[in-house]
Amino acid sequence: MSEPSPRLASAALSAYTPWPTARPHTERELARLLALLEDCGFRGGSVALGHGRDAASKAAATAFADAWHRSGGLLAAVVDWPEDAASWLRQARRLTRPEPDAWVVAAASAGWVQLSRRLRHSTDWDPCRTFGFAAAGDSRLVTAAGPGVLDGMRGATADGRVWTVRRGWVVESDGG
């Protein structure tokens, strides 16, 4: 018997609505995200960059890619995904096959919930090596993804603070 799909049914996702749309990133958010990667020892390393297909997520991904290249970092992969898909397995494999040092996510909540579940259940992805823009630090997203799926992931808020997922909670602080 095969393992059940980690895909959440529409009814399960609707329990957390309305899902916020991805907002344009800020310069403080981008700067903090780059600093977090450096503080965690990933400066100059390879990053797999994943993003949703909405305009704000694409713009944030482009800004990150440009800044990461300027800092001497390498992009192992750049992968986008739809808010709704049959399984997200193809995108999950594309993000993890190059075996990057870290992952960076710029996405609206609903698509990232589904992809993160697929990553956790079907690949060697590690949320502790994953960093996100502000939209990925939504507590509804963490709850919908399920126990342990996003624990250890961290990122930057729009005002340049740090968020971290700890035991199912999104905790914000001033520092890394």
What this model shows, in words?
- The chain is α/β, with parallel strands linked by helices.
- It has one domain: Response regulator (Rossmann fold), CATH 3.40.50.
- The protein contains 6 helices and 7 strands; from the N terminus they run H-H-E-H-E-H-E-H-E-H-E-E-E.
- Helix 4 (89-96) crosses helix 5.
- It is globular, with a radius of gyration of 15 Å.
CATH superfamily: Response regulator
Helix share, percent:
25-40%
Q: Under CATH, the topology is which? A: Rossmann fold
Number of domains: 1
What is the straight-line distance between the termini?
43 Å
Number of strands: 7
Strand residues, percent? 15-25%
Annotation keywords:
36% helix; 7-stranded mixed beta sheet; Rossmann fold; 176 residues; alpha/beta; single chain; 20% strand; globular
Short description:
With 176 residues, the protein is of the alpha/beta class. It contains 6 helices and 7 strands; from the N terminus they run ααβαβαβαβαβββ.
